[in-house]
Amino acid sequence: MDFTIKILIPYFGKLPEWADLYFETLRRNSEIHFIFYTDCDIESYRSITNITFNEISFETYLDNARKVLGIEFDPADAYKLCDLRPLYPILHFDEIKDADFYGWTDLDILFGDIRKFYTDEILSKFDVFSTHEIRMSGHFSLFRNTKRNRRLYLKIYDWRSKLAQPNFVGMDEHGITNALRMTLFDKLREKFGWHINNWLTQRIKKIKVRKLYMVEQYTTPFISIPWIDGTINSEQPDLWYYKNGTITNSRNKQRAFMYLHFMNFKSSKYRLDSTKAPWEDLDEICKVSVKDMSTGIMISQNGITPINS
After folding, report:
1. DSSP-derived secondary structure for the chain
2. CATH 3.20.20 fits 1-217, yes or no
3. pLDDT for 35-58, tens place per residue?
4. 184-192 and 199-209 are packed helices; what angle lies between their axes, rounded to 10 degrees?
5. How do the domains of the chain map onto residue ranges?
6. Residue 181 — very low, low, confident or very high, per pLDDT cuts 50/70/90?
7. Which residues have CB under 8 Å from 122's CB, separation 6+?
8. Fewer CB near the terminus (10 Å): N or C of the chain?
9. How does residue 275 score in pLDDT terms, banded at 50, 70 and 90?
């Protein structure tokens, strides 16, 4: 089956050091179309046929969001746009209206072959896709393009006031997860402290989540979610490889991964064991070019280097 998948990516400011590598991994996922809204210099990437660039200033993008969505939205920085993700299919409906699926992603990523993990068979069976088992993933999530999914944001508790807050609050992960998984009984328990848990509540919950494909893909090392071998935080794999569209690591050698998320390599913000992110001390993170991606590159505490270095 020929599914149409469109990924929406508003991004403003400065492209990361590894941008050339990132866009190359998007190019290699030619069955997926990526749509950017950006004020960055994207001249080098215009020839990539499965990427559309909408050049727009940050302020103009915000003005459009306020007008189309009818919201108060004055973010402290561009990171707050992550809270807007559940509303992307409304804000950008014209771009995704003919797609079978829409989604969002980040730029601190190198992708493997996404469609090897989200096959036609899997896409046919499910409506919502997360690369985490316990919550929606801000770094990559996918939704069947239905009115129900496009309006999920309306089920996020107090969503308007959350958007009105200047700083990021996590609507793309925790907010949308609760909207998908919480039943009326859960909401009553949360609001009034009622402990309603019987065969009926469990049956309703099973019906509610049966179309969710929330499968841990182990894309983000150094987090509290246990790894394949049960390790957590800094005990998780710290040596990764990319070669010709395939991502592996030094520990799980026979396993390919959908993508590698750099979050805890580059920043200590979400490293819960107080271990400093190694890339924070590097003057240069990316020491390779696109041509090295065919012979192989290595992602480690020393940055992104040729595999034979």
Report:
1. ----EEEEEEE-S---TTHHHHHHHHHH-TTEEEEEEE-S--GGGTT-TTEEEEE--HHHHHHHHHHHHT-----SSGGGGGGGGGGHHHHTHHHHTT-SEEEEE-SSEEE--HHHHS-HHHHHH-SEEESSSSS--SSEEEEE--HHHHTGGGGSTTHHHHHHSSS---IIIIIHHHHHH--HHHHHHHHH-----SHHHHHHHHHHHTTEEE-----S-SSSS--TTS--GGGS---EEEETTEEEESSSTT--BSEEE-HHHH-STT-TT-PPPGGGG-S--B---TTHHHH-EEEETTEEEETT-
2. no
3. 999 999 999 999 999 999 999 999
4. 120
5. 1-217, 218-309
6. confident
7. 129, 213
8. N
9. very high
